[in-house]
Amino acid sequence: MRTPPWTTMPAARLPAPLAALARREHGTTAIAFGVMATALVGFAGLATEGGAWYVIRREAQTAADTAAQAGAIAAAFNRDAVAAARETSARNRFAHSAGGTTVTVSRPPVSGPNAGNARAVEVVVQRQVPLQLAALFLGDAATVRTRAVAMALPISGGAACVLALGSAGGALTQENDLEAGGNATVNAPNCSLASNTSIRQFGSAAVNAFTMSAVGTVSISSPQNVTLQRPAASFQPPIADPFAPDVPGTGIPLPAQSGTCTHTNYGVNSNQSATMSAGRYCGSVSLKGTVTMTPGVYVIQNGSLDVTAQASISCPSCSPGNGVTFVFTGNPGTVGGPKINGGATIDLIGGSGAYRGILMYQDPRAAAGNDVTLNGGAGITTQGLFYFPSADLKINGNFGGVNSTCKAFIGESISLVGTTTQTINVAGCAALGLDPGSDLPQIRIVRLVE
Whole-model pTM above 0.90? Predict the structure, then answer.
């Protein structure tokens, strides 16, 4: 088709009506505005709805943060972390499966630097937000997504050098707690007192520690007698027993409850001297005279360790990492413990084989609530831990001495009452093979880590 001639003709040569039309500019602005209107409306939508998205995202992040912390707290109490996290998120107006919202809870996290960490809880909050003006460019809805990870982390100085594990299930009873009363003095400035039930300070008891932490309540009747670097805390997550047999890496395997006896009803009289070697001692062991021990594990099966005031017990060849461990085992109802007179002379370093840094270990299968009493005296010096997870442990005097650089007590319940003066320290436990910051029981608080 040929181009009409007037389309290429100068306006001056066009017929008058066409020339007038060619010179008109009316409506060009309207045409340009019409072209740009869509873009202007889109940008206005982005600006207006972008602010709304920011608010929603901030709210979603708050929901994710608090939900992750709630989940981590539930996990620390061995509760349902998913239910706790979603309930908390719903309280912050982000309910799972409502209003285009999904709340995904993962324990352990499935992504990030804490992926696979069983103590961490990951929460992802996601919501579909309907669009209005911005829908011209972005579709019908935009996705707001936030993420948080929380876990219980040990606090600096939170090594629990006195820990009451409490009864199974963590029932809060006065029979299963940690108490310091009477005229007792507990001096533990670089470690903490903790209980998976409750803690009570009463009477004129003086306590100097990093902190006190309990799953139940911490009751302090004489605040003027209590010195803490970190305030006492009630209703805290329970403290795990790192020496329990089912704890990977640090747990201690359960000892054989029976075996071939090296000695039966072994005894050293007050006028005798003897050298003891590691082995299985069936029945009670009675030490009244001078005893030189060699490094190793001394299994006492169905009996107690009786040490009288005249006894003198030492291990000259012991050294940090190569010490002595007494293991009390046997039938649950007849598992014994130490019976030590405060007038005895004892100089021992704990820790041998699988029992790193532990001087006395009672089989966790022992009958719950069995009584163990440790009587202190001027001649008793020890380095190492005392582990009686099923026993009601009573500590008198200054058992273990004032110069011990590694001393800690674990029991079902622990009582420091009367006139006991107990100096407790864990700074030197590393020399015995126990890292105070990881191998000992740890007080933990829940923190956001991602």
Answer: no
